[in-house]
Amino acid sequence: MKPLTWRRLMDRKIVEYLMAGKSRRWIKRHLKIGSGRFEKVSALAQQHGYLDAEPLPAYPQAPFPDRPDRRAEARSDVDVLLREHQAWIEERLKTRPPPPRWPHESRDGTGPSPFPSD
Question: Is the pTM of this model over 0.90?
């Protein structure tokens, strides 16, 4: 099961148990989740009105919009420095001749062949 699907299922279970009136401690122990996860989902459920009277959407639909993946947004310090030179780097890569195939060949591919001619 993919992590996104797993998270959606766990969010749905937490909301269903909250709607059923289960205690906070029981939900955390039963689902083996931490306080932080419980608080986030509980706050989202309150915002969307699921704890008041709003019904959950049908099963295949996610109860909440997907949160952005912060790992995809992470950038290293080097990436930030290279970003300003990206156009120049791409230009150099496009105009650069191919590397030599053999140590004694020149960059343009001319030079003696290592194989005897027939």
Answer: no
